[in-house]
UniProtKB/TrEMBL annotation:
Composition skew (Polar residues), residue ranges: 277-287
Cofactor(s) needed: heme
Signal peptide: none
InterPro entries listed in its UniProt record: CYP11_CYP27_families, Cyt_P450, Cyt_P450_CS, Cyt_P450_E_grp-I, Cyt_P450_sf
GO MF annotation terms: heme binding; iron ion binding; steroid 11-beta-monooxygenase activity
Family: Belongs to the cytochrome P450 family.
GO aspect biological process, one term: cholesterol metabolic process
Alphabetical list of SUPFAM superfamilies matching this protein: Cytochrome P450
Protein name listed in UniProt: steroid 11beta-monooxygenase
Subcellular location: Mitochondrion membrane
GO CC list: mitochondrial inner membrane
The protein's Enzyme Commission number: 1.14.15.4
Enzyme class, UniProt record, top EC level: oxidoreductase
Amino acid sequence: MLSVPARLCVRDARGFALSAPRPASGDLGKRRAERPRSFEEIPHTGSSGWVNLLRFWKEDRFRSLHNHMEQTFNALGPIYRERLGSQESVNIMLPADIGEMFRSEGLHPRRMTLQPWATHRETRKHSKGIFLKNGAEWRADRLLLNREVMMSSSVRRFLPLLDQVAQDFCALLRRRVGSSGHSLTLDPSPDLFRFALEASCHVLYGERIGLFSSSPSLESQRFIWAVERMLATTQPLLYLPSGLLLRLHAPLWTKHATAWDHIFSHAEARIQKGYQRLQSRKSSGESGQLPGNHGHSGGVLGQLMARGQLSLELIKANITELMAGGVDTTAVPLQFALYELARNPAVQETVRRQVRESWAQAGGDPLKALQGAPLLKGTVKETLRLYPVGITVQRYPVKDIVLQNYHIPAGTLVQACLYPLGRSREVFQDPHLFEPARWLKPASRDTGGAREGDVGVGVGFRSLAFGFGARQCVGRRIAENEMQLLLLHVSESWWGGDRAIGLYIQIPGVTETVKGFASGVNGLGVAVGLRRILVMVKMMLHFLCF
Ligand code: HEM
């Protein structure tokens, strides 16, 4: 059996770690028994705050951040300090410490502010939504939004909308596969971005914007361009002083602000339409919900307007943030979920079998179909364990706490680092394996083949991709269901044909091309990618010549 030394890190072809980051301090139990040490004694990375920030301003920010954190935990142990710009952060990775952080988050938990977004709202005199607000103001809005997107009654309302988009997306893929001779190799990321945007618009506005059509309207094209540009410019702006760039009229800032302006005016147009519809319904004596284009509720926007508890300005602020928060966050893990399913044929087969049975019994009801296929939820959780989009979950504890026997004063920025947590052997058995069944409850494990001693046995704070507690991701239910429904229809679409129909997933930067969703008889197979062929040819030449 291959054993990995504690400080050695094995990586896969994409540069993601296969071995777990291991706490360097040997005897944690012994250290806990000692008197708490001072904050200054927490191991420090030593580099300056601005150097740390600039290090992450790379094309692949996620990977560089993940690798940096993992290497630092390997070197310094399960807790370390570092400067981020002008503030100090304490980074942790073990569930017990993370639990302690959340227990002291207070009634109004706080995260780091996304400064470019906040500067845009301040300069344009727009209200902030829950993403950017704090304190009692945040809580008041958040409770109203929870009712529209987190409660099970709201899930039942938006599930058919998501299902329709997922089915249309798969029909589009099938057509494309069909017209290219029963097999298609694609980089799924631009398509998934469109899928996520179409799904968000349907749920939030109750409106389809036609992104799957071969010629989307000019308005939709402008909108997708604005969302793409806003997301692309947010990343570099995180490491630069937005206020200064604004004063200098720097092109980067102007692009960011103009993209936001467009997203806001898109929301405003929908609000005006909704308002007119609401008024005409009221004047004709009807009350209650707004009908959307497809006979549904007019989306979350319609619900918020019909209830009338948030001002139109606050509705606009929150709807715009929900739109911005939900596109990349689902598109990226979906790409990795397809990739992992494609390169793990046995897992894919198990998921597909469960999906088929459940879909057949559900009679077209998406809620029943998802309930009968818990491996879909496991697939989403497992993907987010290995590829967390959030990188860290942050809190400023409201009281002094002790972590790893170090004293942390109230108000310090503490960050739970999701990637080292998800790949830690202290926390997960065989963390490098993609096993959706590890998240099943013991009773339903038989179908999924999980192993004894794995997750689900009482230790919390391991699945934190959506954060935790009162401030956890408000779009969580939308995201989970959107991803599960897409995987359901993708799995179901390519089942059981006599002829091999293949969707080949190819992600730039990933060296192997993966053959996915081949015929139902053969399941998935991994195709040999170009780079690997070149390596094999080189090896053969080597043996032939020498
Ligand atoms: C896989 C998809 C997603 C992931 C992994 C994700 C992750 C997160 C995380 C980690 C947080 C911070 C939670 C905390 O501090 O405890 C968050 C907050 C938030 N997310 Fe998501 N998110 C996803 C999808 C979405 C979607 C689809 C929407 C909108 C429809 C959304 C809207 C928001 C908003 C508005 C907040 C701020 C909530 C608050 O501060 O009260 N997210 N998300």
